[in-house]
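Consider the tokenized backbone below.
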């Protein structure tokens, strides 16, 4: 994924989607390649690639695949559907999940896990049943429960990572302690590990790897992660994560930022055409071409870009495809507005033909 990545947060509860979106957008994801960091490096210094994550609240009522409102309007690389475990999955959520998964890569976050009526496994099972056979919904993280401060109910105290096979306790905003799994843990999560392995086997495009896994099991976390990432991009696997408040969001971010996604564009868009999307709050996502200051169109109306700034605040003369930048426009643009050099919108085509 590019160094500027965008996640569309979908939920039938728009206020809840806004809350999750703000938490995701507040995290900047870093990589620290071992080959780059010197042995005596100051641990407070970050080396390697960084990813600026921009999250967008994608309202279900404006999601309309036949009119192509979806990802171009949201300016997103991937969708994150949030499901409140305490409330269950209603018909609208099911329809939303099915439609998004048909057209775009999709992740799911199961939330509301501190509520006494919540049940992560049951919510995951319902989600798996309502998706068709081409989309395998499998958990990548599980909630780790602890006794609450009042002692009356349990609450989420950490995350169990099924890829790295470790438990992470604590708040990502403060300090997190990681612990390797012990045998009792494996006994409890055996069904989830089996579901992960099965999903990889039935979706992998590598016959040799399939035979190897069937004979010896998954050999490494890197191998498992690579296969899950690839199958998610192909829309064959829907990774499911446990999130409560800020706990579990870092795992969602790490997975999303490693996805190698190809930008989808409608067939009506020619290679030389410029396209960008307004994300709201002065942000814009450039899909194709190069943005400079000057006149453009949005929904057949004229718009003038008077200034471009990087996410670091520096003034820019232009922005390339794949970048997210801050722009000043007259008039101010609402989220979801398509910015183009063409007066007619390229989105007015049949999505099904793509």
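A designed sequence for it:
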């Amino acid at each position: 994924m590019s160094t500027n990545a965008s996640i569309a947060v979908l939920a039938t509860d728009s206020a809840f989607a806004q809350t999750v979106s703000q938490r995701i957008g507040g995290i900047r994801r870093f990589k620290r390649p071992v080959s780059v960091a010197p042995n005596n490096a100051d641990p407070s210094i970050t080396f390697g690639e960084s990813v600026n994550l921009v999250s967008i609240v994608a309202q279900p009522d404006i999601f309309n695949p036949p009119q192509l409102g979806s990802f171009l309007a949201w300016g997103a690389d991937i969708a994150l559907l949030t499901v409140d475990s305490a409330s269950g999955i209603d018909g609208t959520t099911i329809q939303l999940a099915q439609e998004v998964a048909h057209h775009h890569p999709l992740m799911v976050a199961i939330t509301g896990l501190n509520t006494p009526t919540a049940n992560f496994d049951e919510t995951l099972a319902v989600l798996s049943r309502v998706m068709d056979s081409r989309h395998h919904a499998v958990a990548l993280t599980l909630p780790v429960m602890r006794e609450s401060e009042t002692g009356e109910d349990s609450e989420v105290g950490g995350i169990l990572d099924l890829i790295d096979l470790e438990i992470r306790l604590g708040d990502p905003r403060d300090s997190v302690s990681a612990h390797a799994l012990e045998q009792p843990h494996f006994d409890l999560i055996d069904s989830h590990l089996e579901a992960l392995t099965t999903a990889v086997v039935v979706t992998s495009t590598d016959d040799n790897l399939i035979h190897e896994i069937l004979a010896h099991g998954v050999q490494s976390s890197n191998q498992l992660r690579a296969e899950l990432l690839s199958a998610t991009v192909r829309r064959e696997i829907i990774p499911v994560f446990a999130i409560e408040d800020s706990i579990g969001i870092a795992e969602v971010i790490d997975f999303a930022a490693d996805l190698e996604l190809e930008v989808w564009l409608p067939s009506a868009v020619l290679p030389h055409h410029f396209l960008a999307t307004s994300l709201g709050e002065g942000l814009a996502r450039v899909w194709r071409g190069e943005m400079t200051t000057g006149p453009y169109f949005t929904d057949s109306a004229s718009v003038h870009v008077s200034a471009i700034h990087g996410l670091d605040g520096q003034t820019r003369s232009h922005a390339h495809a794949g970048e997210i930048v801050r722009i000043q426009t007259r008039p101010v643009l609402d989220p979801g507005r398509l910015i183009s050099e063409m007066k007619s919108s390229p989105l007015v085509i049949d999505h099904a033909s793509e």
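The two ends are 22 Å apart (CA to CA).
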